[in-house]
Amino acid sequence: DPETAKLSCPATAAFIRSLPKERGWRTPFLYKYQNFWCQPREIQAIINLQTHFKAHRSDIIIATIPKSGTTWLKALLYATLNRGRYEIRGGGGFQSHPLLFSNSHDLVPFLEYKLYANGQIPDLGVFDSPRIFATHVPYPALPGSVKTSGAKVVYLCRNPLDTFISSWHFIKNVRHDSLGDFTMDRAFDMFCRGVVGFGPFWEHMLGYWKQSIANPNRVLFLKYEDMKDDVVPVIEKLAEFLGMGFSPEEEAAGVAAEIANLCSFETQKELEVNKTGKSISGFENWSLFRKGEVGDWVNHLSPEMGDKMRQVVVEKLAGSGLTF
Ligand code: A3P
């Protein structure tokens, strides 16, 4: 596998080659590491993350499975947490806010794609407290200190049918031609079997779901569909969870609605930085803003495929209380 040959640590490369593998979505292979599927570069980063990361009690960790709304949640959390730093003038909104000039992935770094990428061990002392980081790593594989430090975790979950369609379009944009054809049928089959980055998706969701029930003050579980329905109450819930609920003055000034506008798909997609810029791992920012809708899967999957995936979802989530 040419991807393992590119890793900076030969011992890690050899270890990865010993793991179970399947054909990948945007790399030749995905490997099963600690019960989830991952690309070689990600595994190297996650091993370093697990070994070196020391969470602080004040840390906030955003966790998602890819294509479930990470870009949006990063923006919302950053804007909510830093709202005191950027004035709202005359109801005109956050006119000089960093989210108008930077993609949220550049304001809230991924642990495995940025800070621990390419064999790096970052100096995390440079971050102001509270630090906000993001990850796609499933709950059981998070560094131990995240679980024991009292750090807060915000998980965002999305209907798997829409997540699949979002992933499918994203992969079409970023997959290298040399990897050969990758049909919708093949991707669909892999997704339903759980073979997708950081999947199986049901294990990913259930890991965080169970923790949010057992430790509601430490793990907040959000749904993309609820945010699309009305994001303002979700922003208020997020602020409460972070221990910084909106004051009566902020409520009167409509700060949560301003945050919603600043972070909305419509605002963010039209920004220059998101039309022409690049952020995480060299991805073009525009590719992170496709449609931003609930239920777009009906435009791409046959009714039979919809039934099949819904059946997988119902079966795998049965008894958990988590539904879509
Ligand atoms: P679609 O492909 O269905 O449009 P992630 O950020 O985890 O990569 O997820 C990407 C998905 O979130 C894409 O879904 C994208 O359009 C959507 N998205 C990005 N920014 C959004 C926003 N501000 N509001 C709603 N959805 C957003």
Can you tell me about this structure?
This is Sulfotransferase. It holds the Pfam family Sulfotransfer_1. The chain has 324 residues and is of the alpha/beta class. It has helices at residues 2-5, 10-17, 40-52, 70-81, 104-107, 111-115, 144-148, 160-174, 184-192, 201-214, 224-229, 231-241, 248-253, 255-263, 265-270, 272-276, 303-317; strands at 21-23, 29-33, 36-38, 60-64, 132-135, 152-157, 219-223. It is built from 17 helices and 7 strands. The strands form 2 sheets. Strands 5-4-6-7 form a 4-stranded parallel beta sheet, with helices on both faces. Strands 1-2-3 form a 3-stranded antiparallel beta sheet. α4 (70-81) runs antiparallel to α14 (255-263) and α12 (231-241) packs across α14 (255-263). The longest helix has 15 residues, at 160-174. It starts with a helix and ends in a 7-residue tail after the last helix. Bound molecules: adenosine-3'-5'-diphosphate. The site of adenosine-3'-5'-diphosphate has 21 residues, from α4, α8 and α15.
